[in-house]
Design goal:
Length: about 375
C-alpha cells in the first residue's frame, strides 16, 4: 500500500541532516569507493578506456540515485515509518550496486549493477507516489517524478538484461538512458517546484564532498604504510603522501567558501548547481583513484607508466575545479573572479609535464585557494548578497 508523506517547510529554521541521511551517505560512499577502486585497478593494468567508461557508468548511477533521494528528503522527509522503511530499501539497493560495480570491473557483467540501481530507484518511485498521495499542493509534480523514474527503470532493465554487450554502441544506449534520467526532474519541476530546503541541501552536498575527499586521504595513508612496511625511507612515497594531503586540503578549502554555495531557489540555479556537482564529486573520487594508482606505480606493482598516475590526478583535479566553476563561481562571483578556478584547472593540466608533477599541483591548488578566498572577500556580487 502506498503511504502518505507530507511536505516540509522550505523556510524551516535550524534544518540539519538527519542520522538516516548520513546513513544513506555512508552506503553511497561504499558504492563510490567500489567505483574508484575499479578505476584504480584499471589504470594500473593499463586498461585506460575500459576503466574510465566503467567508472563513468557506475559513478553516474550512484550519483543520480543519491541526488534524487537528497532533494526528495529535503522536501518530503516527514520522519514517518513509511519514509524510513523505503530509505532502508534504497540503502539495500546501494549495497547491491556496490557489489555489482566490482563484478562489472572484473567480468564486464552489468546485471547486478542494474538490479541494485533499480532497487534504489523503485524505492524512490514509492516515495514520490507517497508524497503525491499525502501532499495535494505538489501532487502533479510528484506524480511526474514517480512515473518518469518508473519508465526509465523499464529502459534500464531492457538494456541490462536483454541488450548488454561490451561494445561501442552500448555507450550510446547508456547516454540515452542517462539523458532520460536527467530530463525527468526538468519535466517534473515544471509542474511546480518541490519545497526543498536551501540550507539543508547545501549541507547534504557538503557532507558528501567531505566523505568523498576522505577517499583521497585513505589513499594517502596507503602511501605512508607502504613506506613503513618497507622498513626504509622512500622519499618518492613520502613526497606523494605530503603532496596528495595538501591537494586534498586545498580542495576542501576551495569547496567550502565563506559565502553560500546555492544563493537562491530559482529553478535554473538549482539545476545548474545540483547537476554540475557530478563533476565535483566525480573529480574528487577520481583523485583518490589516481593517488592509489600512483602508489602502485612507484612500488612497481603496476603495468602502466608513472605518468599515467600523474595525469589521472591532474585531470581529476581539473574536472573538480571545472565543476565548481559551473556550479558556483559563474553564478556567485563577478568579473575575473569567476575564472580563477577555471584558470587553475587549465594550469593543473600542465603540471604532469613538470619535473615534480604532484608537488607542483599541490602548490598550484594552495595558491588558487588563497587567491580565491582573498578575491571573493571583496567581490561586489558577494558583498551585495550578504548586505
Amino acid at each position: 500500500m502506498i503511504g502518505r508523506l507530507s511536505e516540509r517547510d522550505p523556510g524551516e529554521h535550524h534544518r540539519v541532516a538527519t542520522p538516516l541521511e548520513l546513513f544513506v551517505d555512508l552506503a553511497s560512499v561504499i558504492a563510490i569507493a567500489a567505483a574508484a577502486a575499479g578505476l584504480h585497478h584499471a589504470l594500473t593494468e593499463a586498461h585506460y578506456v575500459e576503466g574510465v567508461f566503467v567508472f563513468l557508468l557506475s559513478f553516474f548511477a550512484i550519483w543520480l540515485a543519491w541526488l534524487n533521494y537528497t532533494w526528495f528528503a529535503s522536501a518530503f522527509d516527514d520522519g514517518s515509518l513509511s519514509f524510513k522503511l523505503a530509505t532502508f530499501v534504497f540503502l539495500s539497493g546501494s549495497l547491491v550496486m556496490a557489489a555489482g560495480v566490482t563484478q562489472l570491473n572484473h567480468n564486464h557483467l552489468i546485471k547486478v549493477v542494474v538490479i541494485g540501481y533499480v532497487i534504489m530507484r523503485l524505492a524512490m518511485v514509492y516515495l514520490w507516489f507517497s508524497a503525491a498521495r499525502g501532499s495535494m499542493a505538489y501532487r502533479k509534480t510528484c506524480l511526474r517524478y514517480g512515473t518518469g523514474i518508473l519508465l526509465t527503470q523499464v529502459y534500464w532493465v531492457i538494456i541490462g538484461v536483454f541488450f548488454w554487450t561490451w561494445s561501442l554502441p552500448m555507450i550510446g544506449l547508456f547516454a540515452i538512458g542517462a539523458l532520460l534520467e536527467l530530463i525527468v526532474p526538468f519535466w517534473s519541476e515544471r509542474a511546480g517546484m518541490t519545497p526543498w530546503h536551501r540550507h539543508h541541501v547545501m549541507e547534504r552536498y557538503g557532507l558528501l564532498t567531505i566523505i568523498v575527499l576522505g577517499e583521497t586521504l585513505l589513499s594517502t595513508s596507503f602511501a605512508l604504510r607502504e613506506t613503513f612496511d618497507a622498513g626504509e625511507v622512500d622519499l618518492s612515497l613520502i613526497s606523494l603522501a605530503i603532496s596528495s594531503t595538501l591537494i586534498t586540503f586545498a580542495m576542501w578549502w576551495i569547496y567550502f567558501s565563506r559565502e553560500d554555495q546555492l544563493q537562491g531557489r530559482e529553478r535554473w540555479r538549482a539545476f545548474t548547481w545540483g547537476y554540475a556537482h557530478i563533476l565535483v564529486f566525480g573529480g574528487a573520487a577520481a583523485v583518490g583513484a589516481g593517488v592509489a594508482a600512483t602508489i602502485d606505480m612507484l612500488t612497481q606493482h603496476a603495468h602502466a607508466p608513472l605518468a599515467v598516475g600523474h595525469w589521472t590526478i591532474a585531470v581529476s583535479v581539473a574536472v573538480f575545479l571545472i565543476g565548481l566553476t559551473i556550479a558556483r563561481e559563474m553564478l556567485n562571483l563577478s568579473g575575473i573572479n569567476r575564472f580563477i578556478l577555471l584558470a587553475t584547472a587549465v594550469l593543473s593540466l600542465v603540471t604532469p609535464l613538470t619535473p615534480w608533477p604532484v608537488e607542483s599541483l599541490a602548490g598550484l591548488l594552495l595558491l588558487a585557494a588563497a587567491t580565491r578566498t582573498i578575491r571573493a572577500a571583496s567581490d561586489p556580487k558577494i558583498l551585495a548578497s550578504t548586505a
